[in-house]
C-alpha cells in the first residue's frame, strides 16, 4: 500500500480491544479500515471497511492495492456528494438585510447577499445577524 502511495498506519497495540481501536480511528476520520488477523493471513485475505457506509468487504491480499484505491475513491465521492447536497439544502439567497435576518433566525446555512464592499457594512451585517462573510 505504501509503495502505491497510500498512507498506512498499523495499530498493533495489544493492550486495546479491536472495537476501541475501530472507534478511535473512525473518530479521527480514517476513510478505510483494513482488518487482518492470523487466519486472514493463512487464507490470503483481509477485510476492508468503509467509514462512510460501514460496508465490510473480504478481499484477496493479491488485489489489496486495487481494492483499497477503489474504496478510497468511493469514500471520496460519497463524502463530496454529501457535502454538496448539504450545501445545496442549506443555501439561501436574499436581497435585503431584513430578509437575511429573517432567514438566519429561521434556519442556519449559507446566505447569498449583495455587499457594497465596505467594512462598515460587513460589520453591521455581522452585528445584526451573527453571519460572517466567506467570499
Protein topology:
Elements: H1 18-28, E1 32-35, H2 38-43, E2 45-50, E3 56-60, H3 64-89, E4 91-93, H4 97-106, E5 110-112, H5 119-129
Parallel strand pairs: 4-5
Antiparallel strand pairs: 1-2, 2-3
Features:
elongated; two-stranded parallel sheet; 2 domains; alpha+beta; 135 residues; 3-stranded antiparallel sheet; Rossmann fold
What does this molecule look like?
- The protein is α+β, with helices and mostly antiparallel strands.
- It has helices spanning 18-28, 38-43, 64-89, 97-106, 119-129, and strands spanning 32-35, 45-50, 56-60, 91-93, 110-112.
- The chain folds into two domains: 18-88, 3-Layer(aba) Sandwich (Rossmann fold), CATH 3.40.50; 90-129, no CATH class.
- It has a three-stranded antiparallel β-sheet. It has a two-stranded parallel ribbon with strand order 4-5.
- The protein is elongated, with a radius of gyration of 23 Å.
- The two termini are 39 Å apart.
- The mean pLDDT is 93.
What is the average per-residue confidence, as pLDDT, rounded to a whole number? 93
Radius of gyration: 23 Å
Give the amount of beta strand, in percent. Answer: 15-25%
| CATH H-tier superfamily of the largest domain | Anticodon-binding domain
Oligomer: single chain
List unreliable stretches of 5+ residues: none
What is the CATH class of the largest domain?
Answer: Alpha Beta
How many β-strands, per DSSP?
Answer: 5
How is the main sheet built?
Answer: 3 strands, antiparallel
In which order are the strands of the major sheet placed? 1-2-3
Summed up, the domain count is 2
- Overall geometry comes to elongated
CATH topology of the largest domain: Rossmann fold
Return the structural class.
alpha+beta
Helix content: 40-55%
Amino acid at each position: 500500500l505504501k509503495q502505491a502511495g497510500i498512507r498506512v498506519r498499523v495499530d498493533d497495540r495489544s493492550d486495546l480491544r479491536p472495537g476501541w481501536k475501530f472507534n478511535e480511528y473512525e473518530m479521527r476520520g480514517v476513510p478505510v479500515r483494513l482488518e487482518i488477523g492470523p487466519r486472514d493471513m493463512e487464507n490470503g485475505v483481509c477485510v476492508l471497511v468503509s467509514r462512510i457506509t460501514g460496508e465490510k468487504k473480504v478481499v484477496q491480499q493479491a488485489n489489496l492495492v486495487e481494492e483499497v484505491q477503489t474504496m478510497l475513491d468511493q469514500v471520496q465521492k460519497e463524502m463530496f456528494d454529501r457535502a454538496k447536497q448539504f450545501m445545496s439544502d442549506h443555501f439561501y439567497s436574499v436581497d435585503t438585510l431584513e430578509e437575511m435576518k429573517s432567514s438566519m433566525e429561521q434556519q442556519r446555512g449559507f446566505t447569498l447577499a449583495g455587499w457594497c464592499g465596505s467594512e462598515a457594512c460587513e460589520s453591521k451585517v455581522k452585528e445584526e445577524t451573527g453571519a460572517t462573510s466567506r467570499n
